[in-house]
Amino acid sequence: MLCPDGCGDTLSVNLDARAGKAWRVDVRKNQLTLYPSVWRDQGCGAHFIVWRDRLLWCDRYDPAPWRDHELVGEVYVELERSVSGEHRHYEHIATILDAIPWEVLWACQMLTRQGKVDAKQGGLFRLRLGSGGTTTPPESQV
Length: 142
Fold this sequence. Notes:
The protein is α+β, with helices and mostly antiparallel strands. Helices cover 23% and strands 23% of the residues. Strands 1-2-3-4 form a 4-stranded antiparallel β-sheet, with no helix packed on it. The chain has a 3-stranded antiparallel β-sheet with strand order 5-7-6. Helix 1 packs across helix 3 (101-113) and helix 2 (90-97) crosses helix 3 (101-113). The radius of gyration is 17 Å and the shape is elongated.
């Protein structure tokens, strides 16, 4: 594909895990998602996400590209299943829920902003423990 920043370079994105580091392609509702992000460490240095046929620049703020309250609830329920409050990686949760990893990450980030989830560097999340060692249930407007 041509680099979306306009530098004119052709980018090669490996989709075959047998040939080394590979990206995952997901097509839902006839829309393409590429995971993980594409980050050029040479040339123009572009860093972007392809999500549901949309290009999101990683170094530019794009307000609320996604809102799926049903998935936020599913992520919360999946985090409730964690053994003894261990942190879980959003990619693992996405695999279990058969969801797009970007969307599970954004759901975890929404839950973190709401104070329901604790985040740890590296994409790890767990439910925040409430008083008495129990988890705080999700509000009706997750």
